[in-house]
Amino acid sequence: MTKILVTGGAGFIGSNFIKYMLDKYPDYEIVNLDALTYCGNLENLEDIEDNPNYSFVKGNIMDEGLVDVVVSSVDYIVNFAAESHVDRSIEDPQIFIKSNIIGTQVLLDAAYKYQIKKFLQVSTDEVYGSLGPEGYFTETTPLQANSPYSASKAGADLMVRAYGETFDLPINITRCSNNYGPYQFPEKLIPLMISNALEDKELPIYGDGKNIRDWLHVYDHCSAIDLVLHKGKIGEVYNIGGHNEKQNIEIVKLILKELDKPESLIKFVKDRLGHDRRYAIDSTKITEELGWKPKYTFETGIVETIHWYLDNQDWMEKVKSGEYQEYYEKMYSKK
Ligand code: NAD
To answer: Which of 119, 128, 252, 309 could bond to 137 as cystine, CB 3.0-4.6 Å?
Structure first.
């Protein structure tokens, strides 16, 4: 039986990935190792918690003893566990170095010790830095991370590459554009704007709102990771993106329209420090080599997603209480 360790599986993409895999491969076993930080939420996995092929281990990927035990029985590792919010990395970079780089290195050591079949590092297009109005990130674009978050992800990517080159560890790295979809923590653009709009609160938008991100539905990210895990050529990097470039302001206006709320809720706030202007992914390699094709268009995916948050306001309320609320008040009271 194939056994996969998914780290960070209680977060947004990891929880979607676990459900995707259990659904597609009923004979695979999945172990979810997650520290349950402020954004790790086991409720994201409620519908599969009784599945006999799924198990959860609460723990930190920096915990060498625990990681050793967990990795000793698995065939594959898919590493999602990370601090993932750029704004938080500007406030407090150190935890990003610890979780994202040291945590990855601890996993790599165990992966090497137990000679696992593949280590897949889930990375981001943000490691490439920022684009001007033209061009796309390819797998050979130099890494030019601009935020402490993206720098920590780039550091982890290089460490994964180094274990591949130095120790022949079978690795892949995926670099995906911005994800949207169900179960995203409401500090990120789309769920934050939906949540504020529903409460008739101001919608804070950085700078002129014209920063461009290349949006992909989380389901399509999961299907790409699945393909790379099974068919990706050892040692290779694969970019993942759906050619859906949108300005932040376009997304916010679309959300307001769908929720029938006025644009007067929009409030432009002081720009994020070091704010990257544009990301856009060239996904030719994964499309041509592995035959990946996204299922969602942005137009259908975003409407479905807005309605998911509308139908799951209980989930949103619970997630927003506590630590996140304090952080939100602190960040946005300064602007
Ligand atoms: P998330 O913040 O929703 O989830 C991260 C999960 O990791 C949480 O469950 C958290 O508890 C866990 N975690 C954090 N530090 C840990 C540690 N030290 N040990 C164990 N668990 C820990 O993030 P997400 O949006 O689901 O992103 C998942 C991964 O995908 C990240 O590596 C991120 O860099 C990458 N990624 C995200 C996007 C995006 O748009 N969200 C795009 C490309 C790549």
So the answer is: 128
CATH of the domain at 229: 3.40.50.720
Among candidate residues 128, 136, 149, 238, the one labeled active-site is 149
Q: Which residue has the tokens 């695979």?
A: 28
* CA–centroid distance, residue 214 to ligand 1 (Å): 18
Q: Which atom of ligand 1 is closest in space to residue 40's alpha carbon?
A: 9
CA pair distance 22, 17, nearest whole angstrom: 9
Residue 13 Cβ contacting ligand 1 at under 6 Å: yes
Q: Domain range spanning residue 108?
A: 2-183+215-242+277-302
In a domain, 262, yes or no: no
Roughly how many angstroms between the first and final C-alpha of the chain, as a whole number? 53
pTM of the predicted model as reported, rounded to 2 decimal places: 0.96
Helix (H) / strand (E) containing 124:
strand 118-124
Q: What's the domain count of the chain?
A: 1
The tens digit of pLDDT for each residue in 285-315 reads 999 999 999 999 999 999 999 999 999 999 9
Tell me which residue has its CA closest to atom 17 in ligand 1. 60
Give dist(CA 183, CA 192) in Å, integer.
12
User: What was the ipTM of the complex prediction?
Assistant: 0.99
Residue 222 CB less than 6 A away from ligand 1? no
